[in-house]
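Archive entry. Fields below.
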Amino acid sequence: MSVQAWTYLIVGLTFALYIGIAIWSRVGTTKEYYVAGTGVHPVANGMATAADWMSAASFISMAGLISFIGRDGAVYLMGWTGGYVLLALLLAPYLRKFGKYTVPDFIGDRYYSDTARLVAVVCAIFVSFTYVAGQMRGVGIVFSRFLEVPINTGVMIGMGIVFLYAVLGGMKGITYTQVAQYCVLIFAYMVPAIFISLLMTGHVLPQTGFGADLVGSGEHLLDKLNGLSTELGFAEYTAGTKSMIDVFCITAALMVGTAGLPHVIVRFFTVPKVSDARKSAGWALLFIAILYTTAPAVAAFARVNMIETINGKDMQGVVATEAPSWINNWSKTGLIKWEDKNGDGRMFYAKDDRNEMTIDRDIMVLANPEIANLPAWVIALVAAGGLAAALSTAAGLLLVISSAISHDLLKKMILPNITEKQELLYARIAVAIAVTIAGLLGIYPPAFVAQVVAFAFGLAAASFFPAIILGVFDKRANMQGAISGMVVGIVFTAGYIIYFKFVNPAANTADNWLWGISPEGIGTIGMLLNIVVTYAISHMTAPPPEHIQELVDHIRVPRGAGAATHT
Amino acid sequence: MSKERQSAYWKANLRLVAILLSIWFVVSYGCGILLVDFLDQFQFAGFPLGFWFAQQGSIYVFVVLIFVYVRMMNRMDREHDVHED
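PREDICTED_STRUCTURE:
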């Protein structure tokens, strides 16, 4: 069977599975719609959280990104996992005990203020749309590259699938499809990784193969990689190029941002008990760690493979007409380009002016099975995995948008008298509109999608995270403090990012950055500012009312969690 | 539930969280970022040690930390009689 036939088969089967789950998990109440009736098993929630969290970027782009930047790639590896420790220890159990439906719910109630609620709603919607645009684009790209349908058709098919299970099943439908999607994506990631590790190092586990000797030459993988890198004018693979303070701040912004992302937090509202919220954070990170400890290994394997296929074992460059078929296949998609600068008919990849190649980092995962000559069904699996990763994240984000509109904005602020049935209807309408907008963003991607990812994390770090942490750990934190803190954090972070990314991109270099911190890492400073301002203003103004202090006492102990309510 | 018992539980909780987050900080920001170049002179399982912490080790420690927290908190909930069910 051809690669394409395999791809149609495997993608078709997984889609049929998602649709089946959508029909099985139809819901009839807002509680089921927003938090899956708080009946999700902690291990299932762990898987759902892992799929929710690992996006098209984690699946398709991350290994390639690490492959090109070497050790500095650790900012993503640590940044996108370490946040779960913060979630488990500082947020998840308390928010579960609080027992409402959304993050703005907590901010609005804890700070007894609709202004605070509104700030949270706006942030939640902005952060989620920023993120979802990238997912829909990812769906379209996978479709176009593997199934050779136009990107727009791919986006529409993806929209249709998400629409079906998000509208019918809300959080319940999303949860159980995410469980299935986790299984698909992790299988799809691990199979080629294990194959390649076996081929290159004889180790089954990529995690240990990564530090082993190469089969054949017996040379140590990382030594070889360092040697190749310096020979071609790159920095050593195991050495960093970013400044220490920037690595520190980017890692912190990503960690804190992760812990502050509403679509991740809300997953911990869906389990039955407080102790389940803690446990399920552990399972979530375990499931995520399987992919995240494999990715750097894939990055290293792929880099050696890629350099050797282009430059040849003898480093003279491979004659283009004799190049392996994957180079031709992927040239069509524009992910890899060769320009014969010295006219010798040979390809060459280097950092300096010998270079003749333009290589997109996404190719490292997408073309990896072909580079290593793996069977056709493995290549097809990667397509299904990429789709699972993108769709699961998109669905989680769309639910946050929908509940922010129907629950936080309509029910809590504008139309408090609507019945549960009406609220559910509004939630479904909201998700339908959100899917459509997300699809349009996928079809007509604004040029700045890649630029604004820093925004999502920076804003989550500078707004939600401090407000929630202080809401639990500082009983004295009050409305005045929280609102000023969030506003200062957001304005500072957004201002810094907008200045360097949009107003004056030419100035976006380390010399001009505040203390050498890039826009990607500035959320860390925004978060610290928020904490300082909230603390200072709270302690200068009147303490929060008695019933709020009792609420804080209440969420600090596990007993009496019961079911999530909307009263 | 009495105020004293609640505050004893909360203090014990804060102590545990402080210990675990210190470890969290040391393995990631410490070994993976601040001390990475120093640790790279040592080899571990075929990796320069600092590089291993940055791309592998810290993640393993994170997973272990959460499960340790789950166990310790379940025990602490019972000791202070604030557990569920």
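CURATOR_NOTE: Chain B is about 80% helix and 5% strand.
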